Amino acid sequence: MYWTKTLSNLVLTVDSITQIIGLPANLLALYTFIQKIKQQAKPLDILLLNLNISDLLVHIFLPLRMKEAADMKWTVSYFLCPLMEYVIYTTIYNSTLLLTAISVERYLGVAFPIKYKQYHNSRNAVIAVVLFWVVTMAHCSFVYIVKQYESECVSNGTHQVPVTRDSCYMMFNDKQLEIILPFRLELFIVLFCIPFIICSFCYIKLILILSRLHNINYKRRRRAIGLALVTFLLFTICFMPFNVSHLVGFIGWHSPSWSVYTLLPITFNACVDPLIFYFSSSMLRQTFAKFVAGLIKRLEVFCFWRLFKSSTVKERLQNSQHFTV
C-alpha cells in the first residue's frame, strides 16, 4: 500500500546491514553478559543484558520486514503482522526506558559514589527491568486493540480505499485514528519525553562532573565522557524522529506517511548498541578480543592450508610433466 522502489531498497539496505553486523555482535554480547551475571550480577550488567535481549528480538522479526520490502507487499500469514509490530514497538520503548535507567545508574555512580556503593544492588535492577517489560508490553498491546476496529475500507486522507491483505496495515480508518492518535501522544509524552529529559539531565551532569575530575586517569576519563556523549546522541538520533511523528500526527490528526522512514534508525540502533556494550563492559572487550584472535588464527591456518595444497598440486603437475617428457 505504501511501498515504493526507493523505500524498498532503503529498508533492505539498512536492515541487511543491521542483521549482518548486529546479530553476531549481539549474540556475542548475550553470551558474555550471561557469563558475567553468573559470576557477579551487577545492576548495570542486568540493564545491559535486557537491552541486548530487546535488540535480539528486533533481529528475530526483522527478516519479516525485509521480506515485505523485497516483495513490496505482505506475503506471509497476516497473523504475523500485528505480532511483528507489537514486538518491535515493545522493544522500542523498552530500550528507551533501559537507556534512561543506564544513564541514571552511571550518573549516580559518579555523582554519589559512596551512597551508590552502599545502596545499589541487583535486586532493584531486576525489579526495574521487570517493570519496564510489563509497562511497555501493556502499552503496546494497542496494536491488537486497533486491529479489532479494522473495516473493509480505510481513509487515505482524501477518500476511502479498500483494505487489502497485501500489506502490513499502515493506513487506518477514522475509528482507528480516534484510538491511535491520542494513544501515540501519550507514548510520546510518557515513554519518550520524560525518559529523554531524565537522560539529558543525567548525561549532561555526568559529562560536567567527569570533566572536573582531574584525579582520574585522562584516558579513562575521556573514554567515559565519550561513552556518555555517544550514548546520548544515539538515544536522540535513533528514537526522537519516530516519537516526533506521533506528535505531528496528533496535531494534524492523521498518520504521517513519512513515519515509516523513522523506523530505520530505530532498527539500525540494534546494530550500534553493541558499541555501547563493548565500551561499558571490560569482560565483553576481553571476549571480543579472544573471539577476533581465534578467528584470525583460524583464517591463518585455513590460508596456510590452501597455500600448502596449491603448492603441492603445482609440484605434482611439474613432476608429472617431467616424467611425461
From TrEMBL:
Main subcellular localisation: membrane
Origin superkingdom: Eukaryota
Keywords (A to Z) from UniProt: Cell membrane, G-protein coupled receptor, Membrane, Receptor, Transducer, Transmembrane, Transmembrane helix
GO molecular function: G protein-coupled receptor activity
A GO term from the CC aspect: plasma membrane
Record localization: Cell membrane
PROSITE patterns in the cross-refs: G_PROTEIN_RECEP_F1_2
UniProt topology in membrane: Multi-pass membrane protein
Pfam families reported for this sequence: 7tm_1 (PF00001)
Keyword field contains Endoplasmic reticulum: no
Domain (G-protein coupled receptors family 1 profile): residue spans on this chain: 25-277
Residues annotated as transmembrane: 16-34, 46-66, 86-104, 125-146, 179-204, 225-252, 258-280
BP GO annotations: cellular response to fatty acid
PANTHER family (alphabetical): FREE FATTY ACID RECEPTOR 2-RELATED, FREE FATTY ACID RECEPTOR 3-RELATED
Name the UniProt record assigns to this protein: Free fatty acid receptor 3
Species name: Ictalurus punctatus
Taxonomic placement: Eukaryota, Metazoa, Chordata, Craniata, Vertebrata
Gene giving rise to this polypeptide: LOC108256690
